[in-house]
Amino acid sequence: MSRTGKKPIALPSGVSATIAAGNITVKGPKGQLEQSLVRLVSVSQDGDSVVVLRDNDSKPARANHGLMRSLINNMVEGVSNGFSKSLLVQGVGYRADVKGGKLVMALGYSHPIEYVIPNGVSIEADKTNKITVSGIDKQQVGQVAAVIRGFRKPDHYKGKGVRYEGEYVRLKAGKSS
Fold it and tell me: What domains lie within the chain, and their CATH numbers?
């Protein structure tokens, strides 16, 4: 039995789960998320907790068991607390600012980069070149942060670029003559 999959998911106060027609919907104070259930896995609600069970011991069922439990747990955590990722913009003249539903960044290119903020995600940029991406869907928050980081990945020679907060970039030695 999967160690991750067999743990029940506790629903905090103010969070409710509804299981119907191959979908699970989790509602909480921050919003609502919906996920379709994967095959070979069944989900049931037992009081103030959600339990994920697999139909048999086949390899796909075992793989989907822990996956479904993790997805539902992330949904519960997202609608109750939310998720956020912080990015740091490092480099001379590198800036980020939010203007009219767009994240506008100057990252050393000949033009500013404008990123339209998707629905369900909020982006804040403060004066110290720190970008905070937050929302209730863990996958969407991580994807938006990865796209922003991809506009100018950290350079391994000078250390300039967009990096996650706490990310270590090992600097290489340059050419020596």
Answer: 9-80 (3.90.930.12), 83-164 (3.90.930.12)
